[in-house]
Design the sequence.
């Protein structure tokens, strides 16, 4: 069995650092990936970066950059206004900048 994800797409916004109540920090980013085949359109995938070399990389990325993310699909549970909520995201273990966004 394996849980491996490879995404190649465009950042829909600048990566953002969030500090959790525990004091840990996580970088979040959203990758827009074009669909292939008959169902044209795009999907957006939330990604989280907890540490390592990829964490240093994403701090320099910006909205519109083309990137590649490798990682694993994770379901994360947390509370919002007292209610339990879950989210599926890619926990990035590696990533690279493919091409910088063209300035407007």
Sequence:
């Amino acid at each position: 069995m394996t849980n491996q994800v490879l995404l190649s797409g465009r950042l829909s916004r600048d990566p953002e650092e969030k500090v959790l109540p525990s004091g840990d920090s996580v970088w979040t980013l959203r990758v827009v990936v074009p669909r292939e085949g008959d169902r044209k359109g795009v999907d957006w995938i939330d990604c989280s970066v907890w540490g390592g070399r990829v964490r240093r990389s994403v701090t320099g990325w910006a909205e519109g950059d083309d990137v590649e993310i490798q990682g694993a699909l994770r379901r994360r549970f947390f509370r919002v206004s007292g209610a339990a909520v879950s989210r599926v995201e890619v926990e990035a273990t590696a990533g690279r900048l493919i091409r910088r966004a063209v300035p407007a």
